[in-house]
Amino acid sequence: MAKPKKNPVTIYDLARELGVSPSTISRALHDNPVISAAVRKQVQALAKKLKYRQNTVAASLRMNRTHCIGIIVPRINRHFFATVISGMQDEAQEHGYTILIGQTSERIEREHMQLNAMISSRVDGIMVSPTMYTTNFSAFAQCKSHHIPLLFFDRTPPNGHHHRVMGDDFRGGWLATEHLIQQGYRRIAHFCGMLSSSIYQQRLAGYRAALQHYGLPARKRWIIEHELTAESTPRAIEKLLSLEPLPDAIFIANDTSALHSIKLLQAHGIRIPEDMGIVGYSNDPAGELIQPGLSTIDQKGYQLGRTAMQTMLDLIKHHDRKRTVSPITITIPVELIVRASSVRQA
């Protein structure tokens, strides 16, 4: 005869075992500072011993919380966004949250669709890196009307009216351009992304500022705007090769376009870095595999992701306590990674 199935352990079982109230157990399991550290440790140890698992559906209904955070990104298959999401998930998981990911593929209508889906799913917070074409952020106002904390990361609105966690894109543009100048390059072109996006505006501004600081021209025709994809890069290279005189270096605002540019230029008989130096952006692992290795700007995606999630969890806590938080802006430092694509031999 089969043994009767044991009922799952509840907070009431834990409360009886320790001689405290169920509400104390609940607060201790959620690391509420109202409960002493010693009691929290005791409760969590017993919960682990008895293999207690929270009934998330019941808890969500009781607390009006899903413990799920929505994340909207342009492209999941980009190395940068993959590392950002990894950092977000690790931080969320440590605090008992799950994540829901939506991809826009750089299309504004999909951005709105994903936003509505997140709101309908009753997520506890929404984190967004907008499309490169998003200039009107009014659709996100509905987060406030639904009482859902909102945070932008990487690509952000240009004003300080929203919570933002972003990389130091101006500094990145400066470092990349300064490095090329210090290697002896003087006619430095720039492949920028669509300038409707904040990150490409800032990287371009850093490029221009470095050229001005070192007394070099920033010619308009040397700035080539495109989507920085594998598909758009060949046209950008054709435009570059038509310039007279030919630039002797390019700062390219992402590694996808930089990696393809190296191959396309080599196919035209241009030696990298002897004839043309190249610096990319985002430190894609493929940059170490190509010949020559790609110099790039490391955006610290994992760190940015964890910081953004920490900020969101803080916003949720403040929201639960009905506290108003002034707009937060956090900037993550970037780092120049030097490889052979930009180093001229002495």
General description of the model:
The chain has helices at residues 11-18, 22-29, 37-49, 56-63, 79-94, 108-120, 142-145, 169-182, 198-213, 233-241, 255-267, 301-320; strands spanning 68-73, 98-103, 125-128, 150-153, 163-167, 188-192, 223-225, 249-252, 277-279, 296-298, 329-332, 335-337. By secondary structure, it is α/β, with parallel strands linked by helices. It folds into two domains: 66-167 and 302-333, Response regulator (Rossmann fold, 3-Layer(aba) Sandwich), CATH 3.40.50; 169-299 and 336-342, Rossmann fold (3-Layer(aba) Sandwich). The strands form three sheets. It has a six-stranded parallel β-sheet with strand order 2-1-3-4-5-11, with helices on both faces. Strands 7-6-8-9 form a four-stranded parallel β-sheet, sandwiched between helices. Helix 1 packs across helix 2 (22-29) and helix 2 packs across helix 3 (37-49). It is elongated, with a radius of gyration of 25 Å. The N and C termini lie far apart (84 Å).
